[in-house]
Design a protein that fits this description.
Shape: elongated
Radius of gyration: 19 Å
Structural class: alpha+beta
Number of strands: 8
């Protein structure tokens, strides 16, 4: 079970070139740096944060695929879901009003209101992502990751070994959106 990104809902990343420029003291006129940061470094830092937390940061539309629809509550594999958009079970659309979306300590639980949705494979489309302004520590983590990647850019391009960011401090900035470990 894994959520697949279908499309982005937000047109832009949670941090901008200007945010990274201020963090890293980069010259505003450096077009090469701007291109590298906007096209590679920012998306990679956001994706790394999403991978480490299990949560969506940039708002997107996702599809969860299940072999069989569970008989009771179940956990979505992507954290920070905000709404259920579509439920299909056994090839038939099921009313999204028949389900509650609950945030239980970072886990996003889908709870059927009226029992089981039916038999067969199921697809749940949902929107997930955060308002970055509500999570300043996550924004700071992404900026630190961008600064680290920008400083290491020659090594990254040359395939050389690189020094990791200090995880114990830095990763604690992601705690507010980190989903609990699963079995």
């Amino acid at each position: 079970m894994a959520a697949t990104l279908l499309s982005w809902v937000d047109e832009k990343e949670p941090v901008t070139f200007d945010d990274v420029r201020a963090q890293c003291f980069i010259d505003a006129d450096d077009e090469n740096a701007k291109y590298l940061i906007e096209t590679n470094i920012i998306p990679a830092a956001r994706q790394l944060a999403e991978t480490r937390t299990g949560s969506a940061i940039r708002r997107g539309k996702y599809r969860e695929t299940l072999k069989l629809f569970p008989t009771g509550d179940f956990t979505l594999s992507k954290g920070r879901a905000t709404k259920i958009l579509k439920v299909t079970c056994g090839g038939l659309d099921v009313s999204v009003g028949d389900f509650l979306l609950l945030d239980i300590g970072g886990d996003m639980i889908v709870s059927p209101i009226s029992g089981s949705a039916g038999a067969g494979p199921a697809y749940i489309e949902f929107e997930a992502g955060i308002d970055i302004a509500a999570f300043p520590s996550v924004k700071q983590w992404i900026l630190l990751a961008c600064g680290w990647a920008f400083e290491q850019r020659e090594l990254l391009l040359a395939g050389q070994p690189i020094q990791e960011m200090p995880a114990s401090y830095v990763d604690s900035l992601l705690q507010p959106i980190t989903t609990p470990p699963r079995f």
